[in-house]
Amino acid sequence: MVHAKTWILKKHFEGSPTNSNFELKTVELPPLKNGEVLLEALFLTVDPYMRIAATKLKEGDVMMGQQVARVVESQNSAFPTGTIVLAHSGWTMHSISDGKALEKLPTGWPDTLPLSLALGTVGMPGLTAYFGLLEICGVKGGETVMVNAAAGAVGSVVGQIAKLKGCKVVGAAGSDEKVAYLKKIGFDVAFNYKKVESLEETLKKASPDGYDCYFDNVGGVFSNTVIRQMKKFGRIAICGAISTYNRTGELPPGPPPENMIYQQLRMEGFIVTTWQGEVREKALKDLLKWVLEGKIQYHEHITEGFENMPAAFMGMLKGENLGKAIVKA
User: Fold this and answer.
1) Are β-strands 103-104 and 94-97 bridged in parallel, bridged antiparallel, or unpaired?
2) CB 1 within 8 A of CB 29
3) What is the maximal distance between C-alpha atoms in the chain?
4) What is the 3-state secondary structure (H, E, C) of the chain?
5) If you placed Cys at 89, which of 26, 95, 222, 238 could pair as Cys (CB 3.0 to 4.6 Å)?
6) Angstrom distances, CA of residue 73 to CA of 31, 44, 82
7) pTM tops 0.85
């Protein structure tokens, strides 16, 4: 019998998550049936969306999330023992799968590349950056792109793809260390939004002519300030709104309608799972190629130990991570 360590949502979040919201349990797994595999987690992801998605869980449910796992026992010929897979097993060390929702690493994955990158730059966050920028914003060479939470898993890839496409890129982050990292990976302008006297003046100085594309991970007051400086026919990709996720009161006012109307802006929210099949495969190939060519750099913020899943999650929501927040099981 295999005993799986599992983090459950003990109590729904009220404001910022705390340790009391989570409970570590041990669950006994049944023997494998024909067609099933037993997975052992190697790396697990913590992402901002989990703060919102957890509202749909019942208290006592396993926290959701993707992991890179190894097949340790198999009754499925498509996934022999030792196969590395991506699985949506949640916050658990061991799980059983019938194989239908499992995904192998992209073809051509070299031994030199960390497996955890399949949860980051060459995974869901990288795909989010790719489709949000190229499909939703429809970015073109010579344009100016603004991205916030720019040193995070998604924002850092957005900026680098925009540079690959010949854009000027302005990024906002929450520490001097993160700003230095953004400059290192090629952002034209980067600033610490916590230290500027006026966000409005900082944005104007960074791009006096305004912004063609805005990739929004933050929402709230920050976004309303950016929207006032969008160029005519500007495009805004709404990826997230992390500044509002832990709110307990009313939401801040929405975007200024006069700017939306008279600048004829287009704003669109999106979820990365919209893109499947061949377009998704192409995107993963592009991301992997750019990483191997050194055109996209990556940084991982790794927390050691499955027992530290809640701490990694809460730290990520507070912006403690540079790059992708990962837990090494």
Assistant:
1) unpaired
2) yes
3) 65
4) CEEEEEEEECCCCCCCCCHHHEEEEEEEECCCCCCCEEEEEEEEECCCHHHHHHHHCCCCCECCCCEEEEEEEECCCCCCCCCEEEECCCCECEEEECCCCCEECCCCCCCCCCHHHHHCCCCHHHHHHHHHHHHHCCCCCCCEEEECCCCECCHHHHHHHHHHCCCEEEEEECCHHHHHHHHHCCCCEEEECCCCCCHHHHHHHHCCCCEEEEEECCCHHHHHHHHCCEEEEEEEEECCCHHHCCCCCCCCCCCCHHHHHHCCCEEEECCHHHCCHHHHHHHHHHHHHHHHCCCCCCCEEEEECHHHHHHHHHHHHCCCCCEEEEEEC
5) 95
6) 10, 20, 8
7) yes
Extract the tokens encoding 159: 């900026």
Please state, in angstroms and rounded to a whole number, the distance separating the CA atoms of residues 47 and 261: 33
Q: What is the 3-state secondary structure (H, E, C) of 200-230?
A: HHHHHHHCCCCEEEEEECCCHHHHHHHHCCE
Token pair 């429809």: residue: 138
Rounded to whole angstroms, the Cα distance separating 242 from 19 reads: 20
Half-sphere exposure of 210 (CA within 13 A, CB side): 15
pLDDT tens-digit profile of 149-194? 999 999 999 999 999 999 999 999 999 999 999 999 999 999 999 9
- Please give the Cα distance from 115 to 109 (Å, whole number): 9
pLDDT tens across 231-249, in order?
999 999 999 999 999 988 8
Q: How far apart are CA 116 and CA 69, in angstroms?
A: 10
Cα separation, 286 vs 275, whole angstroms: 15
